[in-house]
Amino acid sequence: MSETMAVFRKDLRLAWRDRSAWLSAAAFAAITVLTYSFAFDLATQDVRPLLPGVLWTTFLFAGILANGQSFQREAEQGTLDAMLLSPVSPTAIYVGKVLTNVVGLLTVEVAVLLLATILFGTTLLTLELSLIVFVGTIGYVSLTTLLATLGSRARARAVLLPVLALPLLVPMLIAAVRATGASLGDPVGTAPWMLLLVVFAMWTSIGGALLFPMVTER
Amino acid sequence: MSGETWMLETRGLTKRFGGLAVVDGVSIRLPAGSRTALTGANGAGKSTLLAMLSTLMAPTEGGAFIDGHSLATRPAAQRRRLGVLAHAPMLYEEFTPEENLRFFADLYGVPDAAPRIEELLRIVGLWTRRHERTEVFSRGYHQRLALARVLVHAPVLLLLDEPETGLDVEGMALLDDLLLTAPGVTVLAATHRLDRIGQWSDGGVHLERGRVVEDTTAGGAGAAIAQAGAKR
Predict the structure, then answer these.
(1) Is residue B150 in some structural domain?
(2) Domain ranges for chain A
(3) Residue B105 touches partner A, C-beta closer than 8 Å
(4) Largest CA distance in chain A
(5) ipTM score for this prediction
(6) How many CB pairs under 8 A join A and B?
(7) Domain span at residue B18?
(8) With an 8 Å Cβ cutoff, is B135 touching chain A?
(9) Sign of CA dihedral A141, A144, A146, A149
């Protein structure tokens, strides 16, 4: 546990020192939400049915933008090898990375929800929606962090992550969009979609922790 | 030295990429406290051999043992005893020297690391620059900090890949004092600086196309040469 926290603290400090990845993700997210707000006629339309798609498209691509770099710098500087040379289990390294990426993406997502609340005139920072975003983010980040490791040594790494991640994220995206829609007034209710999100988060986080040692082995 | 437990022993260690054997049946035995120069032309397999010994790369065949313990069965416990200096300094450019060493001390579970970090930074001449980011340092200073990183957890077996890279005369002296001739450690160092080998090594292993063609270490003289001779 202490090794995981050491990796987590190190990554948070690195993210703070070089804010370019998360700042570009936040800027992308803000511009996307702003563009959507211009596209809809807020005076006459009920935009709530559209908001789940707006939010999760924004979260998805902002996350891809930032998570793709989480192992790239480590691979370039050789520090991923330095961590793997230590007695720390690869799983601890993976969990530390996932925690950092979850914190980073959640920060961007809270900012997006605040901005969308202002732009679309709908309260989005509710407990229910926050829980959906939190669980969805854990599943999403667990998968993309693993795939970012896989692509960190590849030449086409910028393309590799979205190409590999997007098809695998489809079940999670469907569940997240439907659960978000339900929390904004869809009569179906959030429970079945929330269950799917929880299962996806468990599957990707456990699978990621088990597969990471194999992904890093040469 | 029959029946002796060697600090480092490899038995038929082989790494193939596709059909190509980059390291081919290497068997060496290094006694504790020995200092071995690993030589060979570019592409001879030195870095691949060191990558397998440091557990970064799994061998295709054969095995490696540290103090009689297989690297394959308890790699984490063995890694605690290893100090590895590779081609890249393996440092966080955004961190200061102090932060770099503190992080690696945390990974290795070094208790009360602050005095150890101060001692190492003073030795490598970076104590006065401990608050500067590593990215502003020259290649030589990167290498000095890498030497400190290797030693932060007091390893007993050092695996060094061209450790002289980027070092000036003063840096070379540091390298000799800290790693190559330090008491109580076993050293296996890949090098192209044949002119310096006599200053620090007590034996050598020469590789050609992944095979041992000359072994003048205390543990392996004869056997490895015969192995290479039989294959030629």
Answers:
(1) no
(2) 2-216
(3) no
(4) 61
(5) 0.84
(6) 68
(7) 1-78+192-232
(8) no
(9) negative
